[in-house]
Amino acid sequence: MFGLELSFIWAGIIAFAVLVYVVLDGFDLGVGILFPAAETEKERDLMMNSVAPIWDGNETWLVLGGGGLFAVFPLAYAVIMPALYIPIIVMLLALVFRGVAFEYRWRTDRWKRVWDWGFFAGSLVAAAAQGIALGALVQGIKIENRAYAGGWWDWLTPFSILTGIAVPTGYVLLGSTWLNLKLTGRLQERMRGMARWSGAATLAFLAIFSALTPLQEAVYAERWFAWPTAIFSLAVPLLVAAVAWRLWRGLSRGDDLAPFLCSLALFLLAFAGIGISFYPMMVPPSLTIAEAAAPDESLRFALVGTLVMIPLILAYTAYAYWVFRGKMDPDEGYH
Question: Which of 78, 82, 89 is nearest to 152 (CA)?
């Protein structure tokens, strides 16, 4: 029983790491996708400087989520990787290329525009690959005899392509509300406009996926509409409506912080909807958390170090955001 409880604790830790990665790295990927919206070199410098102190730390959570999956849910890792090998590799390569572009654009004048486009392309491709991987996971992975039984291209479907468009759109909402928080003047006003259209598109995608997800697997429909989980299925859309109203009100009033917090809340609620669909599965539709977990001894050993490291990571992340809080000075930068 204790081993079963440990597996669910670890599932919660990995879910937490993935959620924190999505909301933190999501907004700086959104800033990269928004890069072509900058009209001048100074505006591009301001946009990049807004995430310069924290972008690489945000990706710590991706390492924690992926490493944790490999260490404590090896069967899930062994199934997911071959099923999603192509989008995951594309995502990692795009993140590497984006990081190189981030650093190199400050160290050249002749090739600066090339690296600007590299920063945009790496951000967009990474976000799209994340969306495609999510869609492929939601639509279910074929498993036989505790191994992946599908083909190389099973991940590529109309549903996964749709999620591959939706996730970058959501990241644009995060990025534009982040820039609204950090910047002033004409660029801030333009980012508020970006937040309005990307917010409307994000809400439209949420509505579409709320309709399509129960059709992907029968178990999703059962969990969404059966009692008592139907309570959560009803509560999430109501909360989304409330958050959307506050987002639009904040943008209309010229608020700085509220729109960003509301965009984070939309991602949190979308993540909760996925959690309602998945639980207690680790890899839908048939591999549960308990079945995918490593032996009890491995779970206990890894948990000790993780319970020490997560508070440290949270502490230095919070400290970094605190140090670089407030509006940016257009005449100063962090690079």
Answer: 82
- Minimal CA–CA distance to 265: which of 203, 320, 327, 334? 203
- Per-residue CA distances from 134 to 78, 88, 120, 141 (Å): 17, 10, 21, 11
* Element holding 143 (H helix, E strand): strand 143-144
Q: What global pTM score does this model have?
A: 0.91
Sign of CA dihedral 77, 82, 84, 86: positive
* Phi, psi (degrees; rounded to nearest 5) at 281: -85, 145
What is the average pLDDT across 191-219?
Answer: 89
Structure tokens at 189: 């006003």
**Fold annotation for 2-323:** Formate dehydrogenase/DMSO reductase fold (1.20.1630)
Cβ-in-10-Å burial (0-12, 13-18, 19+) of 173 comes to: buried
pLDDT in tens, 125-143: 999 999 999 999 988 888 8
